[in-house]
Design brief:
Tartro_sem_red; 297 residues; NAD; 14 helices; three-stranded mixed sheet; 54% helix
Length: 297
């Protein structure tokens, strides 16, 4: 363990947070973590990290605090209040929020943290569970250049593409665009799958050849097996993509951008959730197309 590496507090050890924090431990960082589930804390300790009993305890001695929780309300819950990050972190600490939240929440957090002498980066990620495990995430960052430069070695232990996109909130804006593209892409793939199957084509062969042409995409590559096997174990839950479609449609309305196809896919995601599929992977958009096409699912 090099003394030169900053001490890390990691808040939120879910599908993404657990493997990401473990990648920092593998890179030689001292990581103290907190999350609500005891089994996740046990997993962190088994990987060589330190489990804390509260947010306050986790962040007290940290140089860098990383948060990875589901949405804006959870970020606010762990950041604010007497037991939150801002009251308990030391001045000069760097808070990196890697959750996917509204750009405005990130802007507000950076202002509140600034009053406490705490620097903030919003740094949402793309790449899903596989990208987190393999440390090949795409990380889109909003904030100050100097803070980004300081955090870059840490980001490079977690991801492959790391880009400062602009001031506070910019990372979240780019993430919202990412989620728009991913949802529309999955929907297009799902429609193609149902069309191909109903036409009696060998689906695996069809997806292989489509993947090698202009229709190929990271989405198709990553989700092909989900489609083929109807395996919708969540890498990224419909519930979370529903939240993200709300973020992008709301943010787009605020800046005067029209998202006609995005609006349709947002409704399809919402309908899938209303039918009880919110806990499934977002590749389960296939189920919605199947239902619309008269297939019993």
């Amino acid at each position: 363990m090099s003394d030169a590496l900053p001490k890390i507090a990691w808040i939120g050890l879910g599908i993404m947070g657990s493997p990401m924090s473990e990648n920092l431990i593998k890179a030689g960082y001292d990581v103290t973590g907190f999350t609500l589930e005891q089994d996740k804390l046990d997993r962190l300790a088994a990987a060589g990290g330190t489990a804390a009993g509260s947010v306050a305890e986790a962040v007290r001695d940290a140089d860098v605090i990383v948060t990875m929780v589901p949405a804006s309300p959870q970020v606010e819950a762990i950041a604010y209040g007497p037991d939150g990050i801002l009251e308990n972190a030391r001045p000069g600490a760097l808070l990196i929020d890697m959750s996917s939240i509204t750009p405005q929440t990130s802007v507000d957090l950076s202002e509140a943290a600034g009053d406490k002498g705490i620097r903030v980066l919003d740094a949402p990620v793309s790449g899903g569970e596989a990208g987190a495990i393999e440390a090949v995430l795409s990380i889109m960052v909003g904030g100050e250049q100097a803070d980004f430069d300081q955090a870059k070695p840490l980001f490079e232990a977690l991801g492959r593409t790391v880009v400062l996109c602009g001031p506070h909130g910019s990372g979240q804006t780019v993430k919202a665009a990412n989620q728009l593209i991913v949802a529309v892409n999955i929907q297009a793939c799902a429609e193609a799958v149902v069309f191909l199957e109903k036409s009696g084509v060998d689906l695996k062969a069809a997806l292989d050849v489509l993947g090698g042409g202009l229709a190929g995409s990271t989405v198709l590559t990553r989700k092909k097996d989900n489609f083929l096997n109807r395996d919708f174990k969540p890498g990224f839950r419909i519930d979370l993509h529903h939240k993200d479609m709300g973020i992008v449609t709301d943010a787009a309305r605020n800046v005067g951008a029209s998202l006609p196809v995005g609006a349709v896919v947002a409704q399809l995601v919402a309908s899938l959730r209303a039918q009880g599929d919110g806990g499934l992977d977002h590749s389960a958009l296939l189920r919605a197309v199947e239902r619309l096409s008269g297939t019993q699912v």
